[in-house]
Design brief:
The chain is an all-alpha fold. The protein is built from 20 helices and four strands.
Length: 432
């Protein structure tokens, strides 16, 4: 209907004295949400002033402007909602290529933590070089697949892994490892090996970057583990089966939580209390778990497996006893999670002659252990997503809190135990 027709219709209606409720209702319904002034009068009859306001808005163009603004806002809201939905879906996308690469990197990074960096013999240096070379190959493979992944979490964790390297690029350059334009790494083996034979101090740099808890290799293994979970399971990693991931999850029972809260209420307990005994036992246990994960576990190798497992039991019990006496509430909390993790695998331990005692320590029966199928041990300690991997998450957290207290928040690790690349380079440079 044109402006002229509307005006003529309105005039004729008034002259004839007929009710214009129909016309008023139609226009009011159309424009009321935009103009907030249209509609019937309080008595339900025709409100002429409202209709004239509507008409004037149409005629002077303000209605058109409001319509454009309204639909522009609607479009923006729809776009935002679509983006949120798309982002949510992208976290659930499985990525077999990145999962496979992450699994390989986890194994090669974990192996680096078991090497002896103080032995500079030609044979041992060759072993270290080969292990670092394998690690870089796996790192590059993950960087290529993860950085292009359609899974938002995988891509984010891959970027975090790169940031961890980049914050220490000067140290890597010292030992012959450089970054390429596509974020992959290259190893100059000659430069790397020479670091073990001269007095440049590069051998110490290699140990700092690749050896033990808190090293770059250790954090790369942690990132690889997270990428593997996200790439292989999508959003299902938030389910109960993966709540142990990092230190943000919880495997504790109600009783352990209440115990932690009770302990924290003690005036002698604090988050900042250093605990060298727990830190030392955590470091020792970490090595025991890593050794089991890296060794050949088979029925043909039962004596060596038993020796390694016995050492693990001894080191685990020592950590539990030390953390029971800790004054650091974070250490106590992480130890409670570790105990719950062990208790949750009580049946698996029982099948190999290992008993979870009432105080959550372990006991091992040599005869029953050696009679058991070593496949049970292998399933617990080998590979990504294994019990052994879950243990290292918790052991790492205990070590960090016990050795640094809250000061770790300003250094290498976040309050959740994750890696912070902000000051990592300067911290390592200062150490060296």
């Amino acid at each position: 209907m044109t402006d002229t027709e509307v005006e003529q219709h309105y005039t004729e209606g008034c002259d004839m004295g007929i009710s214009l409720n129909g016309l008023n209702s139609g226009l009011a319904d159309t424009y009321s949400s935009l103009l907030s002034g249209a509609g019937s009068g309080s008595s339900g009859g025709f409100d002429g002033s409202s209709l004239l306001t509507d008409y004037a808005a149409i005629k002077n163009g303000s209605y058109g402007k409001m319509m454009k603004s309204y639909y522009s806002k609607m479009k923006a809201e729809e776009s935002e909602e679509e983006e949120k939905t798309s982002s949510s879906k992208s976290k659930k996308i499985k990525d077999a290529s990145s999962a496979s690469a992450a699994s390989s990197l986890y194994r090669s990074a974990s192996k680096l933590g078991t090497l002896n960096y103080d032995d500079h013999s030609e044979e041992n240096v060759e072993e270290i070089t080969d292990a670092v070379s394998a690690f870089i190959k796996d790192y590059n493979s993950l960087m290529k697949s993860g950085s292009k992944s359609d899974n938002a979490t995988v891509k984010k964790q891959t970027d975090a892994l790169y940031d961890t390297y980049y914050s220490n690029y000067k140290l890597f350059a010292k030992i012959g490892i450089t970054m390429n334009s596509d974020k992959t790494l290259s190893l100059d083996k000659d430069t790397f090996k020479k670091g073990f034979t001269d007095d440049s101090g590069r051998a110490g740099t290699v140990k700092t970057l690749f050896g033990g808890i808190g090293s770059f290799a250790d954090k790369a293994a942690d990132r690889a583990s997270r990428i593997y979970r996200a790439a292989g399971d999508g959003e299902s990693v938030t389910s109960s089966k993966a709540k142990y991931a990092g230190t943000t999850g919880s495997t504790s029972s109600g009783s352990s939580t209440s115990k932690t809260n009770s302990s924290s209420s003690n005036k002698d307990i604090s988050k900042t209390a250093e605990d060298p005994a727990s830190a030392a036992s955590a470091s020792t246990l970490y090595k025991s778990v890593e050794k089991l994960g890296a060794m050949d576990i088979s029925n043909d190798n039962k004596d060596k497996v038993y020796d390694a497992f016995s050492a693990f039991v001894k080191d685990y019990n020592a950590l539990i006893k030390n953390t029971n006496n800790s004054k650091n509430s974070n250490v106590i909390k992480q130890a409670d999670y570790l105990k719950s993790l062990v208790s949750g695998n009580k049946s698996a331990f029982s099948r190999m002659g290992v008993t979870v005692n009432s105080d959550k320590t372990l006991s091992i029966d040599e005869t029953k252990f050696k009679e058991a199928d070593m496949g049970n041990v292998k399933n617990l300690f080998s590979g990504v997503y294994s019990f052994g991997e879950k243990m290292t998450d918790r052991i790492n957290s205990i070590y960090r809190y016990a050795s640094q207290g809250e000061s770790l928040l300003n250094k290498t690790y976040t309050s959740q135990g994750g890696y912070s690349s902000v000051n990592a380079g300067s911290t390592l440079d200062t150490t060296l």
